[in-house]
From TrEMBL, chains A, B:
Pathway: Cofactor biosynthesis; thiamine diphosphate biosynthesis. Catalyzes the synthesis of the hydroxymethylpyrimidine phosphate (HMP-P) moiety of thiamine from aminoimidazole ribotide (AIR) in a radical S-adenosyl-L-methionine (SAM)-dependent reaction. The gene is thiC. This is Phosphomethylpyrimidine synthase. Its cofactor is [4Fe-4S] cluster. [4Fe-4S] cluster binds at C501, C504, C509.
Length: 529, 529
């Protein structure tokens, strides 16, 4: 599969566990011409696609990494337990040790842990407390464990999925692989068109990252797109179907209650969540409370059986800065807090979805209220977009809000592409969206002080000051683009060791002059004069 | 000149003054199919280029709008006074009323002022206090007045200029026009190659926005690029030459003192300012205090004569997140505070330059320290970039920091293009950089509550909810891109009134469903079933 160029100066490594020595935690190791840091391992979401030794056949699917772990536990316990149940019992699972190692990126080994590195026991305690989740459906053994929680690296989600207007199965699988190549930590399949079951099956069997869905979309297809014909039974059967396939988390808009709908209809942009608008219509037309709310305990029973996480959807998120932090939005958020406690009692892992469109000065209130009302369950936001006037650049308006809310404690950021509000993203848009959100998440990690975050920045900055151009490219989130941009004006290998670039030229390169001064202070000799 | 497409549904309007009825403050008025807001005037930096009635000949230069104002004052006062001198004397100049009207964008007339609109007297008082500047060299009469200060709209600067490696005069003039078309409030000409005087002359005579320079670059050319041969006299003559030409503000790195250089040499990335590294080398090699510092009073005497503003440069800004907020940076910032008081005594308008590379959690300290040490002179920052690992996307890593520091009170944001650290920006990079910074500045204006900011967001959101696609495009910062992205999957005029786009398709369009529910509540009738 030649979906992408391999990353330069990179090789795949596998790190064993200490509790479970058979673990093979995958990372990408970048080789550098830097005595302070000859190799730098980095977090790697690409799974087997990032290992040139592996032969991948999309018709057969990926290796079932977790199958023996899951089987062993089933044999011992007689039923599937969720990661939360194990955590509460004090058990550190293989998944937990895997993510602990993965979070540290070997920085504890290479640079010393200082006590703030991530331990397996810390992972367990965060999951037990509901402050973090490991999405890991027992029927998605291809998935490499990862953790979502405020005390871990900020994660990003990439949305794929065909709509009735465009796209195909092959394209969606390719978009998933493309997303994880660039760094998507989870992928949501938001397909709404035909072949929804088959598309999902292909994606799941070939995905090394957790897959999320909004089951309402398929339920609606089952009633021929007539929202008013939806029933609890159709929805329930859809949940079971998708849980059986291996979906790792479901977005369910169970907090959107009948009495909240009139609050939302008064707004500038009404209801802007697809799932939210469907259930709102159902509630209003039937003049009945949402079946997602009235049947929430049964929903949790199904989810617990497979260890599917619930992502409590914000059907009333604001779709414009004018609607931010309004009564409708917060009424629903408070309800999500009630539902969180119900899910936890059933052992179901929970994350909470958040906005949306929010001007910068109103972002923090979202985080604080979410933590308070939802008892510190991880927050998972879409942006937020900090202004409404830049369609075509909404990956950027939203990256501003995303970086900020990530710093404040949001655990996962749902990407926004340049096509937001305008059309279905293509391959280039997905790359732009994923890389933009990687940098926003990384900015958040630096700001919140994640143990492993700053080493890569520092290595890149040293490479920059040393004019090691190839090392700069290799350490970049998107080496292909960095190299292409550099080479537009200064192509060729000679320019890769030049002590300048075309931005300032040789005479005005401040870093070159800066090095000359250092040299002068050391040796008393002047160069370049 | 067919440098760009005119903005859709737009026409140029001119608003007269009340104190000075002969003023013609230019704005762009967007016509909308919105009963709440049939026309929306927006801030317009494009000058005569945005008025189809005007014939422009770049060989003759633009109309000298301010020439009679300047002449009248000179005749009355017998010498040129700066805007700050007038402000302190209690005089409201034409420039001051112009910017007051410009800042309000007619929102006071259209939607009512609520007392928080900008008055000419408020403009005067802010300039008198040093909290704002109007860059307006008496020899740049082509310039339309604009104001830079924390209590006004956040401004953005676009850098142009050839380097020794690439570019030409024609290209630089075109980049200036292109920059102001997309919304640059000021343009810095950072040319360093040959023909530096002639390039600047072309830019000045054709620029409707203030032009800034770093005079050190030309001074260095005059001594054949040998930094050690620089002298106060060469620098002084360069200042006079550029002031005579009409440059509106000079970046001068006068706060970089000899004793600070060793602090900077210890850093991960040393000195990353071009002007800073040149003067640092001069200081070290001569073992002498910087002539920019020792001759600062004479510099101010020259600037006052032409009303050139000084932008006190941050030669020791951090070039990596590792170096953020360090001793070198803050030692220089404190010195800029001393220099501010000297300049103010001479009647010179002052802004202070700021970083650079700063992780999010350390941004606020920059703003707070700047305000305290520099006595509330306006802050003008480059980004800051919030992570080092995304070359190729540094317009985005820096837009995050820029939006935040703008919200905290920074008055002007210097744009960063996708080519930052990699090469000289081309036309596409300039557009990408300017629009990205416009959205960051606008996000800051919403967050800090500028009176006129939210009307455009609200108009666009209403257009979105009403499926008025053409109005959405017209209200966008970059209508061309919004339209192109939309039309990639749904071209043609029919799709411009469709109640969906290709992102979700008709059945899953939440806004469409939302409107159906509204309709149902009103009429009891169901649609789309």
């Amino acid at each position: 599969m030649a979906f992408f160029n391999p990353f330069p100066q990179s090789r795949r490594i596998y790190v064993p566990g200490k509790i479970y020595p058979d673990l093979k935690v995958s990372m990408r190791e970048i080789t550098l011409d830097d005595p302070k840091c000859p190799v730098l391992p980095v977090y790697d979401t690409s799974g087997p696609y990032g290992d040139p030794e592996k032969t991948i056949d999309v018709n057969r699917g990926l290796e079932k990494l977790r199958a023996p772990w899951i089987r062993e536990r089933l044999e011992k316990d007689g039923r599937h337990k969720t990661q939360m149940e194990y955590a509460k019992e004090g058990v550190i699972t293989r998944e937990m040790e895997y993510v602990a190692i993965r979070e540290n990126q070997k920085m504890d080994e290479l640079f010393g842990g200082k006590g703030d590195e991530i331990t397996p026991e810390f992972v367990r305690s965060e999951i037990a407390a509901g402050r973090a989740i490991i999405p890991s459906n027992v029927n998605h053994p291809e998935c490499e464990p990862m953790i979502i929680g405020r005390n871990f690296l900020t994660k990003i989600n990439s949305n794929i999925g065909n709509s009735a207007v465009a796209s195909s199965i092959e394209k969606e699988v390719e978009k998933m692989v493309w997303s994880v190549h660039w760094g998507a930590d989870t992928v949501m399949d938001l397909s709404t068109g035909k072949d929804i079951h088959e598309t999902r099956e292909w994606i799941l069997r070939n995905s090394p990252v957790p897959i999320g869905t909004v089951p309402m979309y398929q339920a609606l297809e089952k009633v021929n797109g007539i929202a008013d014909d939806l029933t609890w039974e159709v929805f329930r059967d859809t949940l079971i179907e998708q849980a059986e396939q291996g979906v790792d988390y479901f977005t369910i808009h169970a907090g959107l209650l009948l009495r909240f709908v009139p609050l939302a209809l008064k707004r500038t942009t009404g209801i802007v969540s697809r799932g939210g608008s469907i259930i709102a219509r159902w509630c209003m037309v039937h003049n009945e409370e949402s079946f997602l709310y009235t049947h929430f305990e049964e929903i949790c029973d199904i989810l617990a059986k497979y260890d599917v996480c619930v992502s409590l959807g914000d059907g009333l998120r604001p779709g414009s800065t004018a609607d931010a932090n309004d009564e409708a939005q917060f009424a629903e958020l408070d309800t999500l807090g009630e539902l969180t406690e119900i899910a936890w009692k059933k052992g179901v892992q929970v994350i909470i979805e958040g906005p949306g469109h929010v001007p910068m000065h109103r972002i923090r209130e979202n985080m604080e209220r979410q933590e308070e009302k939802c008892h510190n369950a991880p927050f998972y936001t879409l942006g937020p977009l900090t202004t409404d006037i830049a369609p075509g650049y909404d990956h950027i308006t939203s990256a501003i809000g995303a970086a900020m809310i990530g710093w404040y404690g949001t655990a996962m950021l749902c990407y926004v592409t340049p096509k937001e509000h305008l059309g279905l993203p293509d391959r280039d848009d997905v790359r732009e969206g994923v890389v933009t959100y990687k940098l926003a998440a990384h900015a958040a990690d630096l700001a919140k002080g994640h143990f492993a975050a700053h080493f890569r920045d520092d290595a890149l900055s040293r490479a920059r000051f040393d004019f090691r151009w190839n090392d700069q490219f290799a350490l970049s989130l998107d080496p292909d683009r960095a190299m292409d941009y550099h080479d537009e004006t200064l192509p060729g290998n000679g320019a890769k060791s030049s002590h300048f670039c075309s931005m300032c030229g040789p005479k005005f390169c401040s870093m070159r002059i800066s090095r000359d001064i250092q040299e002068y202070v050391k040796t008393g000799k002047l160069s370049h004069q």
